[in-house]
Amino acid sequence: MRRNTASTHATAFIPTLIALLLATLLRTAKPRPAGRERHDALHFGGQLHEKHSARYHIVAFGDSLTEGWAIGYTEDRPYSITLQQLLDAGGYSAKVRERGKSGDTVLRGMMKRLPALLEEAQHLGLRVDWLVLMGGINDIIRHAKEVRGAVERNETLPLEYGLMAEEVWLGLQKLYGVCGRHGVKVLALTLLETGWELPKVEGERARLNDLIRGAHVRHDHVHVLDVAQDLPYPSGSSADPAVQALWDDVVHLSPAGYDRLGALVYDGLKHHLEKR
Q1: Rounded-to-5 percentages of helix, strand, coil across the chain
Q2: Rounded to two decimals, what is the model's pTM?
Q3: How many CB atoms lie within 10 A of CB 208?
Q4: What is residue 237's predicted lDDT score, i.e. its pLDDT?
């Protein structure tokens, strides 16, 4: 039986091709540091105790989308960088500090982090004027994974286990309340679309966004910015390349996408600020 030498040579070449690709990647990208915990000094804007004479003190608070996480890039690119640049260029006396934490959820981490942050600021004599808040997508994704796992194991879940949007909404309202008690105004951002192919993720996200859009009705100090409609997820191979360039993976934006988000936040926030 004759061997197909062309096929054999092609198969033998695959490991070499993979090695070349890996070598190229290693030359062009530094490995990301292990672990996602960051000291306050490494967040954009620095630590709270650092004095700044700005008229407005703004905190960008949330998860990896606030942190500026992008898997395919060597450095984070928080939208607060662009927000600060545009505020400076627009003639606003403002100091932006970013407090994003990769993987954080509303119902667990943020419920502890935000009160601690505002209490620390109060202790230091720092008046936080605005909090830009985006959170909830990690709650929904983790919940969807748990549901899928339970279904695969043929486990029965209680009926109320499916009400994730409402649970996160209650958590967000508590965060709004914490801000209100500290005299902090909130710019609440809607959640961006995702490419997750998990049942219920997009449905729960849409339901939560509907609730967020009505936040100002219940909370006078909360203003809503619907960024979801201006940063759609590129669906299908025929998606606009310009839209695709704004995304890094199924959840995170690219550096250009984070810059776009920062511009949207600036447009939504500037109407509430006075210039120098």
Answers
A1: 50, 10, 40
A2: 0.82
A3: 24
A4: 65
Integer Cα distance of 194 and 53 in angstroms: 39
- 185-222 pLDDT, tens digit per residue, is 999 999 999 998 776 889 999 999 999 999 999 999 99
Tokens representing 105? 């959820």
Contact 130, 185 (CB under 8 A): yes
Going edge to edge, which strands form the sheet with 222-225? 94-100, 56-62, 130-134, 185-189, 222-225
Burial class (CB in 10 A: 0-12, 13-18, 19+), 218: exposed
Q: Could you give the domains of the chain?
A: 41-272 (3.40.50.1110)
pLDDT mean values, one per 10 residues, the chain (276 residues): 44 40 32 47 81 94 96 88 98 98 94 98 96 96 76 56 81 98 99 86 94 97 97 83 94 97 99 93
d(CA 199, CA 143): 10
Q: What is the pLDDT of residue 269?
A: 98
Whether 98 contacts 131, CB under 8 Å: no
Paired residues of 95 in beta bridges: 57
Quote the CA–CA distance of 33 and 42 in Å, as a whole number: 13
Question: DSSP for 63-104?
Answer: SHHHHT--TTSSS---HHHHHHHHHHHTT--EEEEEEE-TT-
141/136 Cα distance (integer angstroms):
9
Query: Rounded to an integer, what is the distance from CA 59 to the centroid of its chain?
Result: 14
